[in-house]
Amino acid sequence: MATHADHAIILALRCGEYAVLEDIYARHAPTVSAWVQRNGGLPADAEDVFQEGILALHDKAGDPDFTLTCPLGALLFRICQNKWLYALRKKRTEARVISDLAPQWEVTPSVHDLVEAVEEDDLHRRRLRASFAELSETCRELLQLLARGVPTPEIASRLGMSGPPTVYRRRHACGKRWRERYRHITPTDANAAP
Amino acid sequence: MTEQDDILISRHLAGELDAEERTEFTRRLGIEPTFAAAVTEREQERDFLLAEDRRKALRERLQTLNSQYFSPTDEGARTQVQRQMYPAGSGVQGEGIKEQGELKSPSTTPSKTKTRPARILGLPRPLFTGLAVAATVAVVLLAWNPFGPNRDFRYYTDYAPLALTEKSSEATAEALAAGAAETAFNAGDYSAAYAALQDYLALAPDDSRARLALGIAALETDRDAEAQEILRTLAARPTLLQETAKFYLALAYVKADDPRARPLLEEIGTDHPEYGVRIARLLQWVE
After folding, report:
1. How far does the CA of residue A188 sit from the closest CA of chain B (Å)?
2. I want to staple B184 with a disulfide (CB 3.0 to 4.6 A). Which of B14, B53, B192, B268 is the partner?
3. Mean of the per-residue pLDDT values of chain B
4. Which run of H or E residues covers position A110?
Protein backbone atom coordinates (compact mmCIF):
# COMPACT_ATOMS: atom_id res chain seq x y z
CA MET A 1 0.00 0.00 0.00
CA ALA A 2 1.24 3.46 -0.89
CA THR A 3 2.80 5.69 1.72
CA HIS A 4 0.52 8.58 2.61
CA ALA A 5 1.79 12.14 2.46
CA ASP A 6 1.20 12.42 6.21
CA HIS A 7 4.03 9.96 6.73
CA ALA A 8 6.22 13.06 6.88
CA ILE A 9 4.65 13.75 10.27
CA ILE A 10 5.57 10.26 11.45
CA LEU A 11 9.14 10.85 10.34
CA ALA A 12 9.19 14.13 12.23
CA LEU A 13 7.96 12.43 15.41
CA ARG A 14 10.53 9.69 14.90
CA CYS A 15 13.25 12.32 14.78
CA GLY A 16 11.95 14.15 17.83
CA GLU A 17 10.83 17.16 15.81
CA TYR A 18 7.99 17.96 18.13
CA ALA A 19 7.11 21.23 16.47
CA VAL A 20 4.68 19.19 14.37
CA LEU A 21 2.63 18.55 17.49
CA GLU A 22 1.23 22.06 17.36
CA ASP A 23 -0.26 21.34 13.97
CA ILE A 24 -1.54 17.93 15.05
CA TYR A 25 -3.31 19.52 17.99
CA ALA A 26 -4.72 22.36 15.91
CA ARG A 27 -6.09 20.00 13.30
CA HIS A 28 -7.28 17.05 15.31
CA ALA A 29 -7.82 17.91 18.98
CA PRO A 30 -11.17 19.63 18.32
CA THR A 31 -12.50 16.64 16.40
CA VAL A 32 -11.49 14.12 19.03
CA SER A 33 -12.66 16.37 21.84
CA ALA A 34 -16.06 16.87 20.24
CA TRP A 35 -16.50 13.15 19.74
CA VAL A 36 -15.52 12.25 23.31
CA GLN A 37 -17.86 14.88 24.68
CA ARG A 38 -20.69 13.70 22.47
CA ASN A 39 -20.16 10.28 23.96
CA GLY A 40 -20.33 10.91 27.65
CA GLY A 41 -16.93 12.45 28.26
CA LEU A 42 -15.89 15.71 29.83
CA PRO A 43 -13.25 18.03 28.42
CA ALA A 44 -10.74 16.51 30.84
CA ASP A 45 -11.52 13.05 29.47
CA ALA A 46 -11.00 14.33 25.95
CA GLU A 47 -7.66 15.79 26.99
CA ASP A 48 -6.53 12.49 28.49
CA VAL A 49 -7.68 10.47 25.52
CA PHE A 50 -6.05 12.78 23.01
CA GLN A 51 -2.77 12.84 24.92
CA GLU A 52 -2.75 9.06 25.18
CA GLY A 53 -3.48 8.84 21.47
CA ILE A 54 -0.57 11.11 20.66
CA LEU A 55 1.74 9.12 22.92
CA ALA A 56 0.71 5.83 21.32
CA LEU A 57 1.25 7.31 17.88
CA HIS A 58 4.61 8.69 18.93
CA ASP A 59 5.70 5.32 20.29
CA LYS A 60 4.74 3.56 17.10
CA ALA A 61 6.43 6.25 15.04
CA GLY A 62 9.67 5.08 16.62
CA ASP A 63 9.34 1.80 14.74
CA PRO A 64 11.41 2.24 11.57
CA ASP A 65 9.23 -0.30 9.79
CA PHE A 66 6.06 1.66 10.46
CA THR A 67 4.66 3.34 7.36
CA LEU A 68 1.58 5.54 7.36
CA THR A 69 -0.75 4.59 4.55
CA CYS A 70 -3.77 6.66 5.54
CA PRO A 71 -4.41 10.23 6.71
CA LEU A 72 -2.89 10.84 10.13
CA GLY A 73 -6.17 12.29 11.38
CA ALA A 74 -8.04 9.13 10.50
CA LEU A 75 -5.57 6.99 12.40
CA LEU A 76 -5.36 9.30 15.40
CA PHE A 77 -9.11 9.59 15.62
CA ARG A 78 -9.51 5.82 15.60
CA ILE A 79 -6.87 5.35 18.28
CA CYS A 80 -8.53 7.93 20.50
CA GLN A 81 -11.96 6.55 19.79
CA ASN A 82 -10.92 3.07 20.88
CA LYS A 83 -9.25 4.42 23.99
CA TRP A 84 -12.43 6.22 25.01
CA LEU A 85 -14.62 3.22 24.24
CA TYR A 86 -12.31 1.12 26.37
CA ALA A 87 -12.54 3.67 29.17
CA LEU A 88 -16.33 3.58 28.95
CA ARG A 89 -16.33 -0.19 29.11
CA LYS A 90 -13.95 -0.14 32.05
CA LYS A 91 -16.23 2.22 33.90
CA ARG A 92 -19.08 -0.07 32.92
CA THR A 93 -20.78 2.98 31.59
CA GLU A 94 -23.88 2.12 29.70
CA ALA A 95 -23.88 5.40 27.86
CA ARG A 96 -24.86 4.85 24.31
CA VAL A 97 -22.23 5.74 21.77
CA ILE A 98 -24.20 8.13 19.66
CA SER A 99 -21.61 8.82 17.02
CA ASP A 100 -19.42 5.90 16.26
CA LEU A 101 -17.68 7.33 13.27
CA ALA A 102 -15.99 10.60 12.58
CA PRO A 103 -17.59 11.90 9.44
CA GLN A 104 -14.39 13.68 8.55
CA TRP A 105 -12.50 10.58 7.64
CA GLU A 106 -13.03 7.70 5.37
CA VAL A 107 -12.64 4.46 7.25
CA THR A 108 -10.57 2.16 5.12
CA PRO A 109 -8.98 -1.24 5.70
CA SER A 110 -5.68 0.62 5.85
CA VAL A 111 -6.86 2.56 8.90
CA HIS A 112 -7.99 -0.62 10.63
CA ASP A 113 -4.67 -2.33 10.01
CA LEU A 114 -2.67 0.62 11.27
CA VAL A 115 -4.85 1.05 14.34
CA GLU A 116 -4.33 -2.60 15.11
CA ALA A 117 -0.57 -2.21 14.74
CA VAL A 118 -0.49 0.86 16.98
CA GLU A 119 -2.67 -0.75 19.63
CA GLU A 120 -0.61 -3.91 19.63
CA ASP A 121 2.53 -1.86 20.08
CA ASP A 122 0.84 0.23 22.75
CA LEU A 123 -0.17 -2.87 24.69
CA HIS A 124 3.34 -4.32 24.42
CA ARG A 125 4.82 -1.10 25.76
CA ARG A 126 2.33 -0.95 28.59
CA ARG A 127 3.30 -4.46 29.59
CA LEU A 128 6.97 -3.54 29.41
CA ARG A 129 6.27 -0.43 31.48
CA ALA A 130 4.21 -2.25 34.09
CA SER A 131 6.73 -5.05 34.48
CA PHE A 132 9.65 -2.62 34.57
CA ALA A 133 7.94 -0.75 37.38
CA GLU A 134 7.99 -3.94 39.46
CA LEU A 135 11.78 -4.16 39.41
CA SER A 136 13.92 -2.89 42.24
CA GLU A 137 15.12 0.69 42.10
CA THR A 138 18.69 -0.51 41.54
CA CYS A 139 17.63 -2.71 38.64
CA ARG A 140 15.66 0.08 37.02
CA GLU A 141 18.52 2.52 37.33
CA LEU A 142 21.04 0.01 36.07
CA LEU A 143 19.00 -0.83 32.99
CA GLN A 144 18.33 2.82 32.26
CA LEU A 145 21.97 3.84 32.59
CA LEU A 146 23.09 1.04 30.28
CA ALA A 147 20.42 1.93 27.73
CA ARG A 148 21.61 5.53 27.75
CA GLY A 149 25.11 4.37 26.95
CA VAL A 150 26.72 5.43 30.22
CA PRO A 151 30.16 3.72 30.47
CA THR A 152 30.07 0.66 32.69
CA PRO A 153 32.88 1.83 35.04
CA GLU A 154 30.83 4.95 35.75
CA ILE A 155 27.69 2.87 36.32
CA ALA A 156 29.62 0.66 38.72
CA SER A 157 30.78 3.72 40.59
CA ARG A 158 27.34 5.32 40.73
CA LEU A 159 25.63 2.14 41.90
CA GLY A 160 28.35 1.06 44.30
CA MET A 161 29.33 -2.06 42.35
CA SER A 162 32.82 -3.46 42.20
CA GLY A 163 33.33 -3.09 38.44
CA PRO A 164 31.98 -3.73 34.92
CA PRO A 165 31.73 -7.54 35.32
CA THR A 166 29.42 -7.05 38.29
CA VAL A 167 27.40 -4.49 36.36
CA TYR A 168 26.86 -6.97 33.53
CA ARG A 169 26.02 -9.85 35.86
CA ARG A 170 23.48 -7.71 37.68
CA ARG A 171 22.09 -6.57 34.35
CA HIS A 172 21.57 -10.17 33.34
CA ALA A 173 19.66 -10.88 36.55
CA CYS A 174 17.58 -7.73 36.21
CA GLY A 175 16.80 -8.43 32.56
CA LYS A 176 15.74 -11.95 33.38
CA ARG A 177 13.50 -10.69 36.14
CA TRP A 178 12.02 -8.09 33.81
CA ARG A 179 11.12 -10.68 31.19
CA GLU A 180 9.58 -12.95 33.82
CA ARG A 181 7.42 -10.14 35.15
CA TYR A 182 6.46 -9.20 31.58
CA ARG A 183 5.04 -12.66 31.00
CA HIS A 184 2.87 -12.30 34.08
CA ILE A 185 1.38 -8.95 33.14
CA THR A 186 -2.05 -9.44 31.67
CA PRO A 187 -3.55 -7.08 29.09
CA THR A 188 -5.87 -5.80 31.82
CA ASP A 189 -2.93 -5.04 34.10
CA ALA A 190 -1.15 -3.45 31.18
CA ASN A 191 -4.06 -1.20 30.35
CA ALA A 192 -4.08 0.02 33.91
CA ALA A 193 -0.48 1.10 33.51
CA PRO A 194 0.21 4.73 32.57
CA MET B 1 19.88 -17.17 27.30
CA THR B 2 22.98 -17.92 29.26
CA GLU B 3 24.57 -15.29 31.46
CA GLN B 4 27.67 -15.47 29.29
CA ASP B 5 25.72 -14.64 26.10
CA ASP B 6 23.78 -11.92 27.85
CA ILE B 7 26.99 -10.28 28.98
CA LEU B 8 28.40 -10.63 25.48
CA ILE B 9 25.33 -8.87 24.08
CA SER B 10 25.65 -6.15 26.75
CA ARG B 11 29.23 -5.55 25.75
CA HIS B 12 28.23 -5.52 22.08
CA LEU B 13 25.57 -2.90 22.76
CA ALA B 14 28.08 -0.86 24.75
CA GLY B 15 30.55 -1.03 21.85
CA GLU B 16 33.12 -2.83 23.98
CA LEU B 17 33.84 -5.83 21.76
CA ASP B 18 37.25 -5.96 20.12
CA ALA B 19 37.68 -6.88 16.42
CA GLU B 20 38.00 -10.61 17.01
CA GLU B 21 34.96 -10.69 19.30
CA ARG B 22 32.92 -8.66 16.78
CA THR B 23 33.73 -11.14 14.01
CA GLU B 24 32.70 -14.06 16.15
CA PHE B 25 29.57 -12.18 17.26
CA THR B 26 28.56 -11.55 13.63
CA ARG B 27 29.24 -15.16 12.69
CA ARG B 28 26.96 -16.42 15.46
CA LEU B 29 24.20 -14.00 14.44
CA GLY B 30 24.15 -15.65 11.04
CA ILE B 31 23.97 -19.25 12.22
CA GLU B 32 22.27 -19.17 15.64
CA PRO B 33 18.64 -18.00 15.42
CA THR B 34 18.24 -18.17 19.20
CA PHE B 35 21.24 -15.95 19.70
CA ALA B 36 20.01 -13.55 17.00
CA ALA B 37 16.58 -13.41 18.66
CA ALA B 38 18.21 -12.66 22.00
CA VAL B 39 20.15 -9.79 20.46
CA THR B 40 16.98 -8.41 18.89
CA GLU B 41 15.18 -8.66 22.21
CA ARG B 42 17.95 -6.79 23.99
CA GLU B 43 17.96 -4.10 21.33
CA GLN B 44 14.22 -3.72 21.71
CA GLU B 45 14.55 -3.42 25.48
CA ARG B 46 17.20 -0.74 25.06
CA ASP B 47 15.07 1.10 22.49
CA PHE B 48 12.10 0.92 24.80
CA LEU B 49 14.04 2.47 27.67
CA LEU B 50 15.39 5.21 25.44
CA ALA B 51 11.89 5.85 24.13
CA GLU B 52 10.68 6.13 27.72
CA ASP B 53 13.20 8.91 28.28
CA ARG B 54 11.92 10.73 25.21
CA ARG B 55 8.38 10.08 26.36
CA LYS B 56 8.96 12.07 29.52
CA ALA B 57 10.10 15.06 27.48
CA LEU B 58 7.18 14.58 25.14
CA ARG B 59 4.71 14.47 28.01
CA GLU B 60 5.97 17.82 29.23
CA ARG B 61 5.48 19.23 25.76
CA LEU B 62 2.00 17.79 25.57
CA GLN B 63 1.09 19.35 28.90
CA THR B 64 1.83 22.73 27.41
CA LEU B 65 -0.28 21.99 24.36
CA ASN B 66 -3.06 20.58 26.51
CA SER B 67 -3.22 23.78 28.48
CA GLN B 68 -3.51 25.65 25.22
CA TYR B 69 -6.10 23.43 23.60
CA PHE B 70 -8.07 21.84 26.40
CA SER B 71 -7.90 23.81 29.62
CA PRO B 72 -10.89 25.86 30.67
CA THR B 73 -10.53 29.59 30.42
CA ASP B 74 -12.91 32.48 30.68
CA GLU B 75 -11.73 34.45 27.75
CA GLY B 76 -13.46 34.64 24.41
CA ALA B 77 -17.02 34.36 23.32
CA ARG B 78 -18.88 31.09 23.18
CA THR B 79 -21.13 29.64 20.57
CA GLN B 80 -24.82 29.74 21.13
CA VAL B 81 -25.55 26.09 20.54
CA GLN B 82 -23.68 23.40 18.61
CA ARG B 83 -20.95 21.45 20.33
CA GLN B 84 -21.19 23.41 23.46
CA MET B 85 -17.60 23.32 24.51
CA TYR B 86 -16.43 25.24 21.50
CA PRO B 87 -15.92 28.95 21.53
CA ALA B 88 -16.59 31.27 18.69
CA GLY B 89 -15.19 34.62 17.76
CA SER B 90 -11.70 35.93 17.94
CA GLY B 91 -8.80 33.68 18.58
CA VAL B 92 -10.71 30.55 19.23
CA GLN B 93 -11.91 27.81 16.96
CA GLY B 94 -13.78 24.62 17.47
CA GLU B 95 -14.21 21.53 15.36
CA GLY B 96 -16.81 23.22 13.28
CA ILE B 97 -17.39 23.23 9.63
CA LYS B 98 -13.81 24.29 9.18
CA GLU B 99 -12.67 20.85 10.25
CA GLN B 100 -15.00 19.15 7.85
CA GLY B 101 -13.17 20.44 4.84
CA GLU B 102 -12.55 18.99 1.46
CA LEU B 103 -11.55 15.38 1.21
CA LYS B 104 -7.82 15.66 1.40
CA SER B 105 -5.22 14.96 3.96
CA PRO B 106 -4.32 17.57 6.55
CA SER B 107 -0.75 17.69 5.46
CA THR B 108 -1.68 18.45 1.90
CA THR B 109 -4.06 21.21 2.84
CA PRO B 110 -2.77 24.49 1.49
CA SER B 111 -1.48 26.85 4.08
CA LYS B 112 -4.17 29.37 3.38
CA THR B 113 -6.69 26.97 4.88
CA LYS B 114 -4.60 26.17 7.90
CA THR B 115 -6.82 26.33 10.91
CA ARG B 116 -6.23 28.39 13.94
CA PRO B 117 -5.21 26.54 17.06
CA ALA B 118 -8.38 25.55 18.86
CA ARG B 119 -8.84 26.11 22.50
CA ILE B 120 -11.70 24.34 24.10
CA LEU B 121 -13.32 26.30 26.83
CA GLY B 122 -14.97 24.55 29.71
CA LEU B 123 -18.24 25.95 30.89
CA PRO B 124 -18.86 26.99 34.46
CA ARG B 125 -19.98 23.89 36.29
CA PRO B 126 -23.61 24.97 36.94
CA LEU B 127 -24.04 25.93 33.30
CA PHE B 128 -22.34 22.75 32.17
CA THR B 129 -24.56 20.67 34.43
CA GLY B 130 -27.60 22.48 33.13
CA LEU B 131 -26.60 21.88 29.54
CA ALA B 132 -25.85 18.27 30.28
CA VAL B 133 -29.30 17.78 31.79
CA ALA B 134 -30.90 19.63 28.87
CA ALA B 135 -28.96 17.52 26.39
CA THR B 136 -30.01 14.33 28.16
CA VAL B 137 -33.65 15.39 28.09
CA ALA B 138 -33.32 16.30 24.41
CA VAL B 139 -31.82 12.92 23.57
CA VAL B 140 -34.52 11.10 25.51
CA LEU B 141 -37.24 13.09 23.78
CA LEU B 142 -35.63 12.54 20.42
CA ALA B 143 -35.45 8.81 20.95
CA TRP B 144 -38.84 8.45 22.64
CA ASN B 145 -41.53 10.96 21.99
CA PRO B 146 -45.06 9.83 22.77
CA PHE B 147 -46.51 12.80 20.97
CA GLY B 148 -44.95 12.06 17.59
CA PRO B 149 -42.21 13.91 15.77
CA ASN B 150 -41.43 17.50 16.50
CA ARG B 151 -42.42 19.52 13.44
CA ASP B 152 -40.06 22.41 13.94
CA PHE B 153 -37.15 21.82 11.58
CA ARG B 154 -34.77 23.61 13.97
CA TYR B 155 -35.34 20.79 16.43
CA TYR B 156 -33.24 18.61 14.12
CA THR B 157 -30.40 21.02 13.54
CA ASP B 158 -27.01 20.92 15.19
CA TYR B 159 -24.82 23.35 13.34
CA ALA B 160 -21.12 23.11 13.92
CA PRO B 161 -19.42 26.41 14.71
CA LEU B 162 -18.17 28.27 11.71
CA ALA B 163 -14.48 29.09 11.57
CA LEU B 164 -13.17 30.73 8.46
CA THR B 165 -10.45 33.07 9.57
CA GLU B 166 -6.79 32.35 10.05
CA LYS B 167 -5.11 32.63 13.41
CA SER B 168 -3.18 35.70 12.48
CA SER B 169 -5.18 36.96 9.60
CA GLU B 170 -4.26 40.37 8.42
CA ALA B 171 -7.08 42.87 8.29
CA THR B 172 -7.87 42.19 4.65
CA ALA B 173 -11.36 42.61 3.28
CA GLU B 174 -11.64 38.82 3.07
CA ALA B 175 -10.59 38.32 6.69
CA LEU B 176 -12.95 41.02 7.89
CA ALA B 177 -15.85 39.52 5.95
CA ALA B 178 -14.98 36.07 7.26
CA GLY B 179 -14.86 37.37 10.82
CA ALA B 180 -18.22 39.06 10.48
CA ALA B 181 -19.73 35.90 9.02
CA GLU B 182 -18.33 33.74 11.80
CA THR B 183 -19.53 36.05 14.52
CA ALA B 184 -23.05 36.29 13.15
CA PHE B 185 -23.38 32.61 12.33
CA ASN B 186 -22.02 31.40 15.63
CA ALA B 187 -24.28 33.82 17.49
CA GLY B 188 -27.30 32.40 15.68
CA ASP B 189 -28.01 35.67 13.89
CA TYR B 190 -28.68 34.05 10.54
CA SER B 191 -29.97 37.16 8.81
CA ALA B 192 -26.72 38.94 9.47
CA ALA B 193 -24.80 35.74 8.72
CA TYR B 194 -26.54 35.41 5.36
CA ALA B 195 -25.45 38.90 4.33
CA ALA B 196 -21.94 38.52 5.71
CA LEU B 197 -21.45 35.15 4.05
CA GLN B 198 -22.50 36.58 0.71
CA ASP B 199 -19.91 39.32 1.15
CA TYR B 200 -17.28 36.77 2.07
CA LEU B 201 -18.11 34.37 -0.75
CA ALA B 202 -17.84 37.19 -3.25
CA LEU B 203 -14.18 37.32 -2.22
CA ALA B 204 -13.65 33.61 -1.62
CA PRO B 205 -16.10 31.80 -3.88
CA ASP B 206 -14.42 28.40 -3.50
CA ASP B 207 -14.82 28.15 0.25
CA SER B 208 -17.18 25.20 0.61
CA ARG B 209 -17.54 25.61 4.33
CA ALA B 210 -18.80 29.12 3.89
CA ARG B 211 -21.07 27.91 1.11
CA LEU B 212 -22.58 25.31 3.41
CA ALA B 213 -23.06 27.94 6.11
CA LEU B 214 -24.78 30.16 3.54
CA GLY B 215 -27.15 27.32 2.73
CA ILE B 216 -27.95 26.93 6.41
CA ALA B 217 -28.40 30.68 6.84
CA ALA B 218 -30.74 30.69 3.86
CA LEU B 219 -32.71 27.83 5.36
CA GLU B 220 -32.93 29.62 8.69
CA THR B 221 -34.16 32.80 7.06
CA ASP B 222 -36.83 31.06 4.98
CA ARG B 223 -35.02 31.40 1.66
CA ASP B 224 -35.97 27.80 1.07
CA ALA B 225 -35.46 27.56 -2.67
CA GLU B 226 -32.05 29.17 -2.45
CA ALA B 227 -31.09 26.97 0.50
CA GLN B 228 -32.05 23.87 -1.46
CA GLU B 229 -30.05 24.97 -4.48
CA ILE B 230 -26.91 25.63 -2.42
CA LEU B 231 -27.20 22.42 -0.44
CA ARG B 232 -28.02 20.36 -3.53
CA THR B 233 -24.83 21.55 -5.19
CA LEU B 234 -22.75 20.67 -2.12
CA ALA B 235 -24.51 17.34 -1.66
CA ALA B 236 -23.56 16.33 -5.19
CA ARG B 237 -19.86 16.91 -4.65
CA PRO B 238 -17.67 14.13 -3.20
CA THR B 239 -16.23 16.11 -0.33
CA LEU B 240 -16.28 15.67 3.40
CA LEU B 241 -19.09 18.17 3.54
CA GLN B 242 -21.25 15.95 1.38
CA GLU B 243 -22.97 14.06 4.19
CA THR B 244 -23.70 17.23 6.12
CA ALA B 245 -25.04 18.93 3.01
CA LYS B 246 -27.24 15.94 2.25
CA PHE B 247 -28.74 15.96 5.70
CA TYR B 248 -29.54 19.65 5.63
CA LEU B 249 -30.86 19.37 2.08
CA ALA B 250 -33.19 16.63 3.31
CA LEU B 251 -34.19 18.89 6.18
CA ALA B 252 -34.83 21.72 3.72
CA TYR B 253 -37.08 19.37 1.72
CA VAL B 254 -38.91 18.35 4.88
CA LYS B 255 -39.38 21.95 5.86
CA ALA B 256 -40.82 22.77 2.43
CA ASP B 257 -42.98 19.65 2.41
CA ASP B 258 -41.14 18.55 -0.70
CA PRO B 259 -41.65 14.89 -1.73
CA ARG B 260 -37.91 14.52 -2.36
CA ALA B 261 -37.44 14.51 1.41
CA ARG B 262 -38.28 10.86 2.01
CA PRO B 263 -36.01 9.26 -0.60
CA LEU B 264 -33.12 11.43 0.49
CA LEU B 265 -33.70 10.67 4.17
CA GLU B 266 -33.82 6.97 3.33
CA GLU B 267 -30.65 7.29 1.32
CA ILE B 268 -28.81 8.78 4.31
CA GLY B 269 -30.34 6.04 6.45
CA THR B 270 -31.46 5.61 10.03
CA ASP B 271 -28.21 3.85 10.81
CA HIS B 272 -26.13 6.90 9.99
CA PRO B 273 -23.81 7.46 12.97
CA GLU B 274 -24.34 11.20 13.06
CA TYR B 275 -27.83 11.71 11.71
CA GLY B 276 -29.51 8.32 12.16
CA VAL B 277 -31.70 9.16 15.15
CA ARG B 278 -32.81 12.41 13.58
CA ILE B 279 -33.46 10.70 10.27
CA ALA B 280 -35.77 8.23 12.02
CA ARG B 281 -37.80 11.04 13.55
CA LEU B 282 -37.90 13.00 10.31
CA LEU B 283 -39.18 9.94 8.46
CA GLN B 284 -42.10 9.89 10.91
CA TRP B 285 -42.65 13.55 10.13
CA VAL B 286 -42.87 13.01 6.38
CA GLU B 287 -45.16 9.99 6.63
Report:
1. 20
2. B192
3. 74
4. helix A109-133
